[in-house]
User: Fold this.
Amino acid sequence: MKLSLTVNGADRSAQDVWPGTSLLTALREEFGLTGAKNACEQGECGSCTVYLDGDPVCSCLVAAAQAEGRQVRTVEGLGGPEAVQRAFLACGAVQCGFCTPGLVVAVHDLVHRIEDPDEATIREALAGNLCRCTGYEKIIEAVRCAAAELRAELSEHSAPPGLPEPSESSGPVRR
Amino acid sequence: MEFLAPADWTEALEAKAAHPGAVPICGGTDVMVELNFELRRPPALLDLGRIRALKDWEVCDGHVRLGAAVTFARIISALADRLPALATAARTVGSPQIRNRATIGGNLGTASPAGDAHPVLLATGAVVEAESVRGVRTIPVGDFFTGVKRNALEPDELIRAVRIPETAGPQQFAKVGSRNAMVIAVCSFAVALDLERRTVGTGIGSAGPRPLTAPAAEDFLAGALDWDGLAVSEDAAERFGALVAAAASPIDDVRGTAAYRRRALAVMAVRTLRWMTEKEAVAV
Assistant:
């Protein structure tokens, strides 16, 4: 079947996609976006995490056809290196790197939702992302570091008078 | 394999009638695992993800009515006050990524003995709304689970909604797993008190071929509980736990032994009872 969707802000389509193909497979094999990784294929590891209409999801558990007409944002579409990626580098939160793209998306979501997440919140938010190198302490440090950088950015931006409020919803939304 | 993407509920019912072998998919968190591992090759997938009406919830006639496509993330964010035990169970479902996609209707449809919502739906006396082109029928959730991953739906039926009675007293859910997140229940337990009718509801997960209730434990506790002071003796609490464990019919499998499951159920039953009857706030 034909598949058309928006990936990282661009209209993309593929001509001949098997209906049971996962969004992950379509991203990697049809659109050449290999940032999201294919590991467990059952939603356990989170290495395939992407945004679907703004929510982080396991792309291995979305049928590509379900994403027809939807907005997908992959790790490649976060721009970069942005605050989360810089924090991962600065804190040594990358070892073999396989889990990193999924974690970067999950952390990106967290720090753009919650300004100053505590350790329990961070661990809960990242419960769906496994690091097989078990480098979790550095990853958690990177989350704090990224959140701090975004807070600093936000206070810089909100300091001058006359700028519009960041969002109408509760809490700062900087996505 | 065909991919059917109805735009509305009427189209979905017509598609299911025309393709009774089609597997409904919404969040995809169960169905896609089966496809990815080639455990199942259905003739068609029926995507319910575009049907707006399934994503809503409402309060009507003493019930909270959840559309089949309400996600666990939404239950946590929007319904924790109205459906506290279901929200507690929802927090134990998978990971944030899974909870953003997985739906209450999908949990029911999969009908896994380990489905996290099921004990709460049993304890609270929920009712499943099933619909086909032939009409709507309601199925008490106790009649919905018919075996391991089997449910009472006819081949042309889809789950439209689940109706959960508005909270009528304290209710709790507990789950045992090998870690604190992203885990399939070794066993799970829910209990709900109805303070007006002075009745007790229970639900047991992952300790039988289907989610179960513990009617003898419910009757015993209804008689042993001091309903005015919401207090229960130690002996009665232990007896309640033993009756819950006796109602289960667990097996040994990769996640745990039958003996462990019975023991854990007794512990969870006593513990959740204490959470409901002790006055201080309990962290869950």
Chain A touches chain B at residues 1, 18-20, 22, 41-44, 46, 49, 55-58, 60-63, 65-66, 68, 106, 109, 124-125, 127-129 (CB under 8 Å). Residues 136-158 of chain A form the longest helix (23 residues). Residues 166-175 of chain A have pLDDT under 50 and may be disordered.
